[in-house]
Specification:
The complex is a heterodimer. Chain A is of the alpha/beta class. Chain A has 19 helices and 21 strands. In chain A, helix 3 packs across helix 4 and helix 3 packs across helix 6. The longest helix of chain A has 21 residues. Chain B is globular. The chains are: A alpha/beta, B alpha/beta.
Chain lengths: ~600, ~350
């Protein structure tokens, strides 16, 4: 196993254990944002239960001066504010680390570890003395530990004060209470502990031109910028915040200033089936339409996905993946829908799939998805996940080219229809597999009949083998040709090329990059390719051919990306070695190292549950 | 049954409508349904409706699910886009299409299997959403394409062709639509074009979802003795509780309404629906009273028909969502994308 450099300034991780529904989320994001504003590269992972109130919840923060933002599972400091999870939280601290706990109630001596520095702070008692009302006391206890962390980690108090001012400026009472609580924790820590700790932050310039945002917000923004007008959805964790964000951006930027009317229509459907139907109806009628869901929703939508594929209706599906199968663990992350998305629905179907690795790519993939859906007249999936979708990520600033115009693909205008002698919906006029499309209401001669039943290239119903085959073969050709139009793979190669490669996708990227750097520094060079889209293009094929051994790193049990590579490329299955983590936590560098080193060093592959 | 090309029928006596179109221009492909199918009569009534209303053919969007009824959009208005989707899902397709282009005349054709079993949820929610569309449920009590299973509208005691007796209580789509707050609820009989056409005209002009349940006998699987959805049974038990006449905007009102009490409702576009009450106390604008009256008629073993309930002031999907007056498909991209400057401002909030 890899040896660690000692944690220290701007290089450590800590974890905060609290009770769900007590307001700790805003306290934790206060810390994350303060670190970010100090210029320290930082990432936060919210580990929350599928519950409204009362169950344990955690927030993991990693600061890393080198900019590595993958999850770290080595916690040098634990803030254990939840009696329910205290025992497990104590057990999880790295040896030599620190533990901050609420000492209002005495700690069970059996829980004390000799190799951990225990720091008790009577937050509940102090809050009871200073604040009135149970709810306020609970909320301020959270702000109290923020104060203690400010002292312990050397966080800039002026930045925290500024953030409170921004947040509560207009509400003087709340602002004052927050200030009191912050000072309460801060002063206590300064008086009773050696502040700052060896694990601490110093200001640096590591976050310039960076922003902090969730993948769902960025994807929603991408939908708005792409010109999507119809969003249809059914609530499901972890995708709901995507449509929430779309709605809030649209209310801000898409309301006609004169009439107050909306240049968008968001329909909360009765279920995912209807949501998909609405997307198809709107796409058929000519709007850019999308839905957002998670795995269970894709299962339900698969019927419509097949229709969209066969009837060639542009439609965009965001799948913010969570842990399956079935209801699975709704608040944990996974990449378990890769095969589902690639082949959703019965019969021969295959779909364009995009794999964003962070919120920036969620924005880019959203725009690309609408262009691809219209160009290829087919459903397009954007496969995000809970970690990307719901956690705040530090990303390079988004950019926008004001010259961008939507690629509507082959849509005939009234004038163009007029000029055509006969319009046939499914005729391959240009030989590229993509037929021309007309929109309802544009011209009587553009009319055609859309159906999921057998049809010939003229759009007529058919049960004739040759006519049927002609159309489905063309559709296969059309989707295959999208390989050169989906986002190109990202390749990291050493000079001269290594024998061993890694292929991965989506949110695994950051842990893989870090693991690869780590191995490179230790004389073990590896090439790396990250697929960003399906169907796979030649770059993927060539990368697989050029390496004797390829580790396929992904977050599911059954090696779905590996299966897809084995099916869709010429690569021999034998040389594709799976590295799998699927316990629901975001991937860490150590997960990747463990998987790769166990093979390279001849050790048996041991599943480490995350 | 039909394998011949549709013969060109000429109707020398028929005058072109205001658009210069004849009924022939509103027809579609040759029907492949069984000879005598009630659905073909409904198709004919739709053709007449569109012709008489001077509907621009390409401004119609024809939507359906799966089943015998859902095949019929191929048989009318061949110059309109049609969408034969998947089983029970027409309402969601219609909602999406209507959200994208509010200016089209959305006509959804469904059946009792499509709407009352697999698609019951979608039908209910389209009504709740009040999608501005004509929703026709061609109701024959059986699954025809799969050869005669009972549907959810089959009455208790109705006997199938194979001699089985249905014991499950029916879902009455009219009752359901009324209970869900539908703003236009009608029931008619495919064999009564005189009643059906004015209802369909009013449905086309209605602002909101116009729900039209049409008893449409299946000649192959449900037209025998013992069926409660046969021609004979429907003719014997249909009970017109209210007569409807549709007066289009600008038309001169010359019809003679006889002696019954006349009640007029002005439609969104200025057209008028005139009801002649068969029953003195029937009020087609009082939902509670209509429901009670229909229950009485049903308890007598009769099927109430007519434009049973009408409310023109209801809000439709676009009013609920406060969308712009122009179809969303016509909003220029420049009005949809806030541009790089706005992106910069948004990202200031992400720091």
């Amino acid at each position: 196993m890899a040896h660690e450099a000692q944690p220290g300034v701007n290089d450590f991780a800590f974890k905060i254990g609290t009770v769900n529904g007590t307001g700790s989320a805003s306290a934790n994001s206060l810390i994350l944002q303060a670190l970010f504003r100090m210029g320290v590269p930082v990432s936060g992972k919210n580990v929350f239960p599928s519950n409204i109130q009362g169950l344990p919840t955690w927030y993991e923060i990693r600061v890393n001066r080198d900019g590595y933002t993958a999850r770290s599972s080595r916690f040098h400091l634990m803030v254990a504010m939840n009696a329910q999870s205290l025992e497990r939280d104590i057990a999880e601290v790295e040896g030599g680390g620190w533990l901050l706990y609420d000492s209002t109630r005495a700690l069970d001596p059996d829980l004390v570890r000799d190799d951990v520095n225990f720091m008790g702070i009577p937050l509940a008692r102090m809050c009871a003395e200073r604040f009135e009302g149970a709810r306020v006391r609970i909320l301020m206890k959270n702000i109290g530990y923020v104060g203690a962390l400010v002292a312990l980690l050397n966080i800039d108090m002026a930045i925290v004060d500024g953030m409170l001012e921004e947040k509560f400026g207009a509400r003087k009472g709340l602002l004052e209470a927050n200030h009191t609580a912050i000072r309460m924790g801060y002063d206590y820590a300064r008086e009773h502990f050696e502040c700052p700790l060896p694990v601490r932050v110093e200001p640096m310039g590591g976050t310039e031109d960076r922003v902090m945002v969730t993948g769902n917000s960025a994807a929603a923004l991408g939908c708005m910028y792409a010109g999507a007008t119809v969003g249809a959805w059914y609530p499901i964790t972890p995708s709901t915040s995507l449509m929430d964000a779309f709605k809030s951006y649209c209310r801000r930027f898409r309301v006609d200033p004169e009439t107050g009317k909306h240049n968008f229509c968001i329909l909360q459907a009765e279920d995912e089936l209807a949501a998909a139907g609405m997307v198809l109806g709107a796409g058929w009628a000519g709007a850019r339409a999308f839905t957002q869901t998670s795995g269970p929703g894709i299962s339900l939508m698969s019927e419509f996905v097949g229709l969209a594929y066969y009837a060639e209706i542009p439609s965009v599906f965001f799948d913010v993946q969570r842990t399956g199968p079935s209801t699975g663990m709704p608040t944990r992350t996974q990449q378990g829908d890769i095969l589902l998305a690639a082949y959703a629905s019965h019969g021969d179907t295959k779909h364009i799939v995009l794999f964003p690795a962070d919120p920036r790519e969620c924005f880019e993939c959203a725009v690309a998805a609408f262009d691809l859906a219209e160009r290829f007249q087919t459903p397009v999936f954007v496969l995000s996940d809970l970690d990307i979708g719901m956690n705040d990520w530090m990303i390079p600033k988004l950019e926008w080219d004001d010259d961008y115009r939507p690629d509507r693909g082959k849509v005939l205008s009234a004038e163009e229809i007029e000029a055509v002698e006969h319009f046939y919906r499914y005729l391959d006029v240009d030989g590229d597999g993509i037929p021309y499309r007309t929109l309802p209401g544009v011209h009587p001669r553009g009319a055609y009949f859309t159906r999921g039943s057998g049809h010939n290239k003229y759009g007529g119903y058919t049960e004739d083998a040759d006519e049927y085959i002609e159309v489905v073969d063309r559709i296969a050709r059309k989707v295959r040709s999208a390989a050169d139009h989906v986002l190109a793979p990202e390749v990291h190669a050493v000079d001269g090329g290594a024998d061993v490669g890694i292929v991965s996708l989506g949110g695994c990227h950051w842990a893989v990059l870090e693991a690869r750097d780590h191995m490179l520094a230790r004389g073990m060079p590896l090439d790396y390719l990250r697929v960003k889209g399906f169907p796979f293009n030649d770059t993927v094929e060539r990368f697989l051919a050029a390496h004797d051994t390829v580790f396929v790193v992904e977050q599911n049990r059954d090696a779905q990306l590996r299966t897809l590579l084995a099916m869709e490329t010429a690569a021999s299955k034998d040389k594709l070695i799976p590295v799998l983590r699927y316990g629901g936590q975001p991937l860490s560098r150590d997960d990747v190292l463990a998987g790769i080193l166990s093979v390279l060093e001849g050790a048996p592959v041991k599943e480490v549950s995350a | 049954m039909s394998y011949i090309t549709k013969p060109v029928a000429r109707h020398p006596g028929v005058r072109p409508n205001a658009l210069g179109l004849t009924p022939r221009d509103y027809e579609g492909a040759m029907s492949t349904l069984c000879a005598g199918c009630g659905h073909d009569s409904i198709t004919a009534a739709l053709v007449q409706t569109f012709y008489e209303l001077d509907v621009e053919p390409h401004r119609v969007a024809k939507l359906s699910g799966i089943g015998c009824s859902s095949k019929t959009p191929t048989y009318f208005v061949s110059q309109a886009h049609g969408f034969n989707s998947v089983h029970g899902r027409m309402p969601s397709i219609a909602a999406g299409a209507n959200a994208a282009n509010r200016d089209l005349l959305h006509v959804g054709i469904s059946g009792d299997g499509d709407s009352l079993s697999i698609g019951l949820g979608q039908m209910c929610h389209a009504i709740r959403r009040n999608v501005n569309m004509v929703y026709i449920l061609e109701n024959n009590g059986v699954y025809g394409l799969t050869k005669g299973q009972f549907s959810a509208s089959a009455d208790v005691g109705s006997v199938s062709k194979r001699g089985e007796v249905n014991r499950h209580g029916p879902i009455d789509p009219v009752d359901l639509a009324l209970a869900l707050g539908a703003t236009f609820v009608a029931r008619s009989f495919s064999g009564d074009k005189r009643q059906l056409v004015p209802i369909l005209k009013a449905a086309c002009r209605h602002h909101g979802l116009a729900f039209v349940d049409v008893i449409s006998p299946c000649v192959t699987f449900n037209d025998h003795e013992g069926s409660t959805k046969s021609y004979a049974h429907t003719r014997a038990h249909a009970h017109e509780v209210i007569e409807t006449d549709f007066v289009p905007l600008r038309a001169e009102i010359t019809a003679d309404y006889g002696t019954g009490a006349v009640h007029a409702v002005t439609m969104h576009d200025g057209s008028v629906v005139r009801f002649r009450k068969v029953h003195e106390d029937y009020d087609p604008t009082d939902r509670g009273a209509v429901l009670a009256h229909l229950r009485e008629v049903r308890n007598r073993g009769e099927v109430a028909t007519g434009l049973l309930y009408l409310e023109e002031a209801g809000e439709d999907l676009h009013e609920f969502e406060n969308t712009v007056d122009v179809p969303l498909v016509d909003v220029p991209y420049e009005s949809l994308c806030p541009g790089s400057q706005a992106l910069e401002e948004i990202q200031q909030e992400w720091r």
